[in-house]
Amino acid sequence: MKGIATVLLLLVAAGMLAPHSVAQSVQDEPVRTIIGYVRDSGCVHRFHEVVKPVPNGCLEACVHGGSPLVVLTKDEHVFHPISAEMPDTDVRQKMLPFAGKLVKITGHVYHRGDSTAITLEQIEEVKE
Fold first, then answer.
1. pLDDT value at position 18?
2. What does the pLDDT look like over 84-98, one tens digit per residue?
3. I need a labelling partner for 97 at 20 to 30 A (CA). Which of 11, 16, 30, 63 fits?
4. How far apart, in Å, are the Cα atoms of 94 and each of 12, 32, 47, 91?
5. Beta-sheet pairing, 69-73 with 78-82
6. Cβ atoms within 10 A of the Cβ of 60, count?
7. Has residue 128 got a pLDDT over 50?
8. Tell me: the pLDDT tens digits for 9-39?
9. What are the CA-CA distances from residue 25 to residues 45, 97, 105, 112 (Å)?
């Protein structure tokens, strides 16, 4: 009987800790600033040798075709921009003027598996 009571007590304690653990994993890092190129996701994943967009019209064609936009840092880390609001809203229109440019983005960073997202709280072009 004592063993059953101990197991039940452990289950209740685990249930009370679970919401805290879930809430903590939702926001992985505090506000952070990243610098990288706004690129179309297709080329970023297909052509690993290219970090900065090449002036051949490829980026423009992919962006015009609706390719999702990502930020590729010089150390080749890919960030997926998301909105700071919940439910999430589309940030593509805010990113379009910066396509192909080197930008600084400030926001919260989230990780899931091998994927990384950053909330688009502030974006500005930076000089190379």
1. 42
2. 999 999 999 999 999
3. 30
4. 46, 19, 25, 5
5. antiparallel
6. 14
7. yes
8. 444 444 444 443 333 445 567 799 999 999 9
9. 27, 32, 22, 9
| Residue 78 exposed, middle or buried by CB count within 10 Å (0-12, 13-18, 19+) | middle
The two structure tokens encoding residue 57: 């019209």
Q: How many helices (H) and strands (E) does the chain have?
A: 4, 6
* Phi, psi angles (nearest 5°) of residue 124: -150, 150
**Kind and range of the H or E run holding 100:** none
Distance, CA of 109 to CA of 31 (rounded, Å):
7
Tell me the mean pLDDT in the region 31-52. 93
Closest CA to 92 of 128, 126, 62, 113: 62
Which of these, 41, 46, 35, 79, lies nearest to 63 by C-alpha position? 41
Do residues 39 and 53 touch, judged by C-beta distance below 8 A?
A: yes
Contacts of 111 (CB under 8 A, 6+ apart): 28, 117
28's enclosing H/E stretch is none
